[in-house]
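Give me the fold.
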Amino acid sequence: MGQKRAVVFPGQGTAGGEVSGEVAEALRRRVGGGEPPYQLAVFANSVDLFYRLRDAGVEPEVVAGHSLGEYAAAHAAGSLNLDDGVRLVAERDRLMTEAAGKVPGGMVAVIGADPDEVERVVREAEGVVVAANFNTPRQTVISGEKGALEAVGEGIKGRKVPLGVAGAFHSPLMEGAAARMEKLLAGVEFAEPEVPMVGAAKGEVLRTARAVRAALREQMLSPVRWASVMERFFEMGVDEIFEAGEDGTLTRMLRDFKRKDVRGVTAREALT
């Protein structure tokens, strides 16, 4: 029996790397010779790495993306074409940046605390703050207004690491941006996926164009349940997970699941 491969796509914090070929052409059509906005640079880099992985013989049986990475995953699944992906991600960057400018907020990773305890403290907190990313059994990210984040941080055990992001993503502070994004998604044609995609909001396997569109529509306000994505991979028998990103963030998180039977491979490792 052969190995079952997944390719995963990171979200914030992974910009960088030169792109080439049709990804570079799609970027030029959108931004000309200018610098792409941050989220678009991340998306383009992930897609370019995916193409290079595929050229090197890495054909996934399933894909998934963390937050922004779901757009690259939808493209890799064959559901979202490249030009539509570039346009949607550029607009997502603009809308979320505008929302972040209206109400200053942030995100903090809590490492070593029980996810259920984090959720309990967040529910009892005053102000706008939510558990935004359930990344691993020992890493949860909270998101919200600055004051509320500080208050919640004081009530939770574990190490707190502020994230270098522009705003309180996956929180109610993104409601206006999410509503406008929903209208943009409604105007895009999605194809039936050629490869199944695991949605990060619920860890469900997405096998239809409608399901992929719904996942992208819901993801700006829903928490990222990356731990559920990994559990779904394990159920599906995935034993190799390739990360189409520069930083290896998702590969490092895999260690928390303590699955010696599942191998995490960064794009850099796979391509050298």
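The chain has two domains: 5-100+172-271, 104-162.
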